Amino acid sequence: MELRGTWDESTVLITSDHGWRLANSHGYPRLRKIPFVLKMPGQRNNLDYTSDFAPMRLTKSLLLEIQRGTIKDSVGVAEWINKRRPNAR
């Protein structure tokens, strides 16, 4: 993507439908967390989102909002997720 010049203008999502199933066999506690790495167009800095959320429940709607242009950066993503988490106010 970098060679073709599409990296900076692209949204890239890396995720899964489950957490690391083999954690116990590698000496780590099994977590129910699902990997969710999202790079927004033009993003230069990381934003670590540490609150629990349900990516499988939110991903489709989140990507549609990004495609519509209503969410433009990682801060907007975090704010959008915060409003949709259980017990959000």
What is the gist of this entry?
By secondary structure, the protein is an alpha+beta fold. It is built from 2 helices and 2 strands.
Strand order of the largest sheet: 1-2
Give helix and strand order, one letter per element, not per position.
EEHH
Low-confidence stretches: none
Number of domains: 1
How many helix segments? 2
C-alpha termini separation: 39 Å
**What is the typical, i.e. mean, pLDDT?**
87
How can the largest sheet be summarized? 2 strands, antiparallel
Strand content: 5-15%
Helix content: 25-40%
* Gyration radius, rounded: 15 Å
Global outline: globular
Q: Would you count the extended β strands for me?
A: 2
Structural class: alpha+beta
List keywords for this structure.
89 residues, alpha+beta
Structural notes for this entry:
The protein has helices at residues 55-68, 74-84, and strands at residues 12-15, 36-39. Helices cover 28% and strands 9% of the residues. The chain has 2 helices and 2 strands; from the N terminus they run E-E-H-H. The protein has one domain. The mean pLDDT is 87. A two-stranded antiparallel ribbon has the order 1-2. With 89 residues, the protein is an alpha+beta fold.
Draw up the topology in text:
Elements: E1 12-15, E2 36-39, H1 55-68, H2 74-84
Antiparallel strand pairs: 1-2
